[in-house]
Amino acid sequence: MELTTTLVLPYAYTEPLASGLIRHTADDFFVDEELGFSLSGEGEHVYLQFEKRDTNTAWLAGEIASHAGVKNRDVGYAGLKDKHAVTRQWFSVYLPSKKEPDWLELQSDKVCLLACRRHKAKLRRGAIRANHFRLAVRDFHTGPHLLDKRVTAIKQHGVPNYFTEQRFGHDNANIRRAYELFSGQLKLKNRQKRGLLYSAARSWLFNQLLAKRVHERNWSKALSGDVMMLAGSKRYFVTSNERPEDLQHRIDEQDIHPSGVLWGKGELETMLDVQQMELQVAKDYDKLAGGLERAGIKQARRSLRVIPSNLRYEYEENTSVLTLCFALESGAYATAVLREIVAYTIPSAAE
Questions:
Q1: According to the CATH classification, is domain 37-126 in 3.30.2350.20?
Q2: Per-residue model confidence as pLDDT tens digits over 322-337
Q3: How does strand 45-53 pair with strand 111-119?
Q4: Within the chain, what is the greatest distance between any pair of CA atoms?
Q5: Catalytic entry in 27, 54, 82, 252
Q6: DSSP 261-273
Q7: Are 334 and 132 in contact (CB under 8 A)?
Q8: CA–CA distance from 5 to each of 170, 172, 284, 310, 321 (Å)?
Q9: What residues are paired with 112 via a beta bridge?
């Protein structure tokens, strides 16, 4: 297939209920990160929780490293958070000695220190239990009964676990750069920048697979040869010895989810129809799939759907503001939930 950086992601439900504006101000997009473990209070790593506004995660990590007099690799964080937002996020700093700098000196009008505590291990990517969101959508208009019906459906069935626009850069530039990297047109010595393009490429392939299953209305159905992922876990199992009706019951109960491949080296664990579907996506985008394999990226699995927990909303008709609150597991995107409710636009300054 020729190089393409355009993909229309089908909706799980009907068209969104209304249009609306998100990220009008940083306060319209609030994220609070919940760690997946308890901090011990002792150890060689200092954990710092900051509330930051309009601030890039990697930039703040660099500032922490500089302030502590350590290398950038000695600072850990669980994942990149949106810049044009208010986010509460944890960072770890490797400081085996007991001496610490004055962390309050990092504070500014955009960065506020909330907590400081020691722990025995570095904070790794994805090591959080959930992200808690509060999102405001402006200029939103719809009937309350329609809104309630859509929110109820999402609570019951979830939404497709798409990677959304944040993953691919402005105008999907990261996909174009990934093509250039894999073809040899682009040379990148920076490991972190290469990793960003690898992630974009495998996310693009995953979205192609998920879009196909959403289009065919089986993204939350048990198909022949599926690999199922356990809810709230990265663990999965092959379904060759399971009865389809038993699997579907567990899906309906939100105990398991069908999964899709995150492409890389290794043998597919899916079988039959699902394996052929995954192989076809790799064939259609062989430059991306082949580039990931040559880079030594190992295959992984990702749930095809995500269920937002504690989903609730407030709709103020007089101000046309919809406020959504919910939590998502690590790696899921709030805009994947939002897009099923509203056809949103983002101010150019926030992109």
A1: yes
A2: 999 999 999 999 999 9
A3: antiparallel
A4: 60
A5: 82
A6: EE-SBS-----HH
A7: no
A8: 11, 6, 13, 35, 33
A9: 51
CA distances from 285 to 27, 204, 281 (A): 39, 10, 6
- Reduce the secondary structure of 113-172 to three states and give it as a string: EEEEEEECCCCCCCCEEEEEEEEEEECCCCCHHHHHHHHHHHHHHCEECCCCHHHCCHHH
Domain boundaries, the chain: 37-126, 159-306
Question: What is the phi/psi pair of residue 259, to 5°?
Answer: -120, 165
| Residue 325 identity (one-letter amino acid) | C
230 contacts 302 by C-beta, under 8 angstroms: no
Confidence of residue 5 (pLDDT cuts 50, 70, 90): low
CATH code for 159-306?
A: 3.30.2340.10
pLDDT at 240: 79
Tokens at residue 311, please?
């989903």
284 annotated active-site = no
Tokens of 34: 């919940």
d(CA 197, CA 167): 9
Query: Phi, psi (5° rounding) for residue 129?
Result: -80, -40
Distance CA 130, CA 284 (A): 34
Sole residue written with tokens 């926030």: 350
User: DSSP string of 10-40?
Assistant: PPSSSS-SEEEE--SSGGGEEEEEEESS---
Give the model's pLDDT for residue 2.
Answer: 47
